[in-house]
Design a protein that fits this description.
Length: 85
C-alpha cells in the first residue's frame, strides 16, 4: 500500500484507449476518460509491469486480491489494475 492522495485531490484528466466488444462480439477501440471511471468516486489504482506475466500473477496481484474486501471497507468504491502489454 502507498499513501493515498490527499482529500480533494483528483486523478489527472487522461483518456485511456481500451478494447471492448460490440453487440456482435467483435472488438473495437473505445476512448474512456478518467472522468468516466472515477468521477465522484474514491478509488484505488495500482499498476503492473505486464499483465498475465508469472511475476505479476504470482507476486504483485495476489495481495490486492486478498485485500479487496478490506480495501472496500475503507469507503472505497472501486479498485482498478492498470497494465500495458
Amino acid at each position: 500500500w502507498t499513501k493515498p492522495i490527499e482529500k480533494l485531490q483528483f486523478v489527472p484528466d487522461v483518456t485511456f484507449k481500451t478494447r471492448t466488444r460490440d453487440e456482435n462480439g467483435d472488438f473495437e477501440w473505445k476512448d474512456v476518460t478518467t472522468k468516466d471511471l472515477f468521477e465522484k468516486k474514491r478509488v484505488v489504482i495500482f499498476a503492473l509491469p505486464g499483465a498475465f506475466t508469472p511475476t505479476c500473477s504470482t507476486t504483485h496481484l495476489p495481495g490486492y486480491e486478498e485485500s479487496y474486501e478490506e480495501i472496500l471497507k475503507l469507503n472505497i468504491d472501486d479498485v482498478y489494475c492498470l497494465s500495458v502489454n
